[in-house]
Amino acid sequence: MSATSPQTCTPYLPSATPPPSPPVLLNGRVNTAANLLVDDYDGQLDTIRQTEYPQLFDPQSLDRGEKPQLKTVYLDHGGSTLYAASYIKAHTEAMLLNIPANPHSRHVESMWTQAKIDQTRDQLLNFLGTSAEKYAVVFTANATASIRLAAELTPITPDGKFCFTRASHTSVVGVRNLVNEMGASVCPIEFNEIPDVVAPEATNGTNLLAYPAQCNFSGERFPLDVANTIANAYADTEGHPPWWVLVDTAAYAASSPLNLDQLTAGPDFIALSMYKIFGAPTGLGVLLVRRSSIPYLRPKGYFGGGTVSGIAFDREWQVYRSDIESRLEDGTLNFQGILSLQHALDAHSRIYHSMENVARHAQSITAYAQASLRSLTHSNGRPLCDIYGHTSNADYGPTIAFNIKDNSGRFVGFVEVERLAVMAGISMRSGRFCNPGAAQGWLHLPTSELIRHSSMGLVCGDDNDLIEGNPIGALRVSFGAMTSKQDVDVLIEFLKWNFCNYSIMADPVSGMLCTTSTDAGKAIHGHKASSLQAEVEEVVIYPIKSCHGWIVPRNMAWEITQYGLRFDRLFVIMRENSTVPMQQKRYPAMALIRPRINAAKSALILEASGHAPVEVSLRPEQLHLEDIESCVCNSHVQAMRVRLKNISFWLSAVLSVSCYLACDPRLLVSNITEHAQLKLSADNVHLARPGMSFANQAQILMVTCESARQVEDWITQEYRFDTAMDKAEIGPMQYRPNIIIKSRSTGARKIRPFEELSWEAVTINGAKFSVIGPCRRCQMISIHQDSAKRLKEPYSTLARKMRVDGKVVFGVYLKTNNNSDFYSTEHCSTIRAGAVLDVYSG
């Protein structure tokens, strides 16, 4: 079979939604959270958390000796668990009192380091329930590197195949590319198909089977003794069986003992990640290689420093080191990380005594959590959570994947849930968790749909969560050795408070049921807007995307172009070697950069506290522009780098990160002559989004004072103000609008909160704008624009009160209806504060 067209077994995808999961059973009876006891290490868990994991608590409450106040509810142990304080202290002290050195040298410090590395190998093997007699410890960069190395060492033949099970991590799936290069075939399978796949009558050549001990999506666990099944099937075969077995234990080993010596025939390869178990060190993985398999390994191609005992420069002659560890560990080991691992093992043993204790605790906290999640229902009896797995007919580890449904059974976007959880101090995970097979299976996502989503511009990690009402990912909570019942209780209360009895299609103010997003405004008021009288309160532009806004002076008329307001999102700040503009939600200090336009000088003045102002010309010929690649919302945009060192230095100093200014050159020019001088390529013009510059979704964002006031009232009623933010500061500007409107004092009818959701168009000073939909909001609106501090409000309240079609929204997007040539000044429209606004509704 050729490498370019491997034989592929199509994985099974269920065609119908599975029936609801049965109740959790414990000792033969229906299990509710109230019936469950959470193992707490004989009453020591609270002490362990406060002394070993102070990062979970408000440090001031710990210092005062008060009852510790939780700072973070950490439920992402599947991503990385927490490191113990005593471990970090012991390692720090050892680093200060000793001199860890390159083990390839021969001085005293080097020999001391090598001895510590050898001790750590033995200590780790003992922790995993085996010894150096049965397994070799090969240190790698991470579990992914371990998986790749195992694949490279397996002597797969062209007539063989690589099989991996549905629950495999992307790092395992990626082996298929290596196998394609070997000319072998690739076959994704279900775990229960393994006996048939590895049977002698179905086997040709030498093959590799890979599977996870625990699915990192659903938490489902799989037996470690598959290698024993293969050994029995080929008991009469001399040498190594035709099937090699790789087990990914990165997720499993964090909360359960491996006890490898209890396996009659262990796997050939076992991949592990150290920070998944101990919280640190990162950048250190382990590949266990079964000693009895070593004579049959494929000879390793590349060799690096330390792997040979003799080598010639002018002839292809080298002698490899005899021990497998030195032969496979290219270059200098991460010896500081390995020495750290020894302290991690010591601390883990001292705190928890055994992995059996950790496993018992993890099992009990998982049972309590999933029973608590299943107990959440809307008042009409519909379940709040759609849990993937955790049925009585399979074994599951401390990981639960789920989605939220409203009271009519519609899915709520998992991105919205996660954003609100972040504001509540709860750390969880969302997405597909680098597990394509499990995600496709549980979410009923055929490959054709994934390909269609990709063609639509969707990528892993973006903000898309529902497509045509169905989730393309999930929420995941995962538990560790130090997770407490309190952590789970906080999660449950968070879900109750924010989502129980919530309806995606209900209007946020009236509670009336809506069928479309624009119905939200119509349902409130039930009348046309013809009698409405409103005016522009403020016009705001953001010359640099994600930085502070500049309020246009009230006596100044501001130009409207086909790209929106003149100079709005003209510039972006880019990190070196990145194609995505920096955003305030990742770099809050961007709020401290205050731009203002000096129209007389055609210049942009940048100011920031503690830094001298700097001036940026708005004339393209003075900016030394250079083409770069840039993307906004997964779409290519036209961008050019501003090659002015003083501007780059100033921005880098303010933001404490190396960065530079870039612009959309079309927004700099004001007539056809200047535009021609830029000599923009046809390719660049083609890449630009029609009618858009660096704005995310639309040209202009409009909000009303009345809607902002409604959110203030909600916050006041629930007493949820942050101490750092007064009510007066949660005004319209907090939502980063371009146009703020309000009711006219002499008007016959006032604007009602969120009425703007029902508008179809508005006219301001003769310029007509289409209302193209509500603005979806994120945590960025809770970044204090004066201090750059992350706060809870107004996002937390808005997320509970103002969701339309399952999304948190505030304000509406406008699109200009000006069809005149942008570069012509004959039909220039303007807008200014105080201008009258006319509303058009359907």
Automatic annotation (TrEMBL):
What positions constitute the catalytic site?
Answer: 434
Q: Which Pfam families match?
A: Aminotran_5, MOSC, MOSC_N
| Gene3D superfamilies for the chain | Type I PLP-dependent aspartate aminotransferase-like (Major domain)
Q: Which domain of life is it from?
A: Eukaryota
Q: List cofactor names only.
A: pyridoxal 5'-phosphate
Enumerate the residue ranges of region (Disordered): 1-21
Q: Which residues form the MOSC domain?
A: 675-840
Per the UniProt entry, the Enzyme Commission number(s) are: 2.8.1.9
Q: Which residues carry this modification: N6-(pyridoxal phosphate)lysine?
A: 276
The record lists the catalysed reaction(s) as: Mo-molybdopterin + L-cysteine + AH2 = thio-Mo-molybdopterin + L-alanine + A + H2O
Q: Which GO terms describe its biological process?
A: Mo-molybdopterin cofactor biosynthetic process
Record SUPFAM superfamilies = MOSC N-terminal domain-like, PLP-dependent transferases
The GO molecular function terms of this record are: lyase activity; molybdenum cofactor sulfurtransferase activity; molybdenum ion binding; pyridoxal phosphate binding
Per UniProt, the keywords (alphabetical) are:
Molybdenum cofactor biosynthesis, Pyridoxal phosphate, Transferase
Its biological purpose: Sulfurates the molybdenum cofactor. Sulfation of molybdenum is essential for xanthine dehydrogenase (XDH) and aldehyde oxidase (ADO) enzymes in which molybdenum cofactor is liganded by 1 oxygen and 1 sulfur atom in active form.
Record's family? Belongs to the class-V pyridoxal-phosphate-dependent aminotransferase family. MOCOS subfamily.
Q: Which HAMAP family match?
A: MOCOS
Q: State the name under which the record lists this protein.
A: Molybdenum cofactor sulfurase
Q: Where does this protein come from, organism-wise?
A: Coemansia reversa (strain ATCC 12441 / NRRL 1564)
* Higher taxonomy: Eukaryota, Fungi, Fungi incertae sedis, Zoopagomycota, Kickxellomycotina
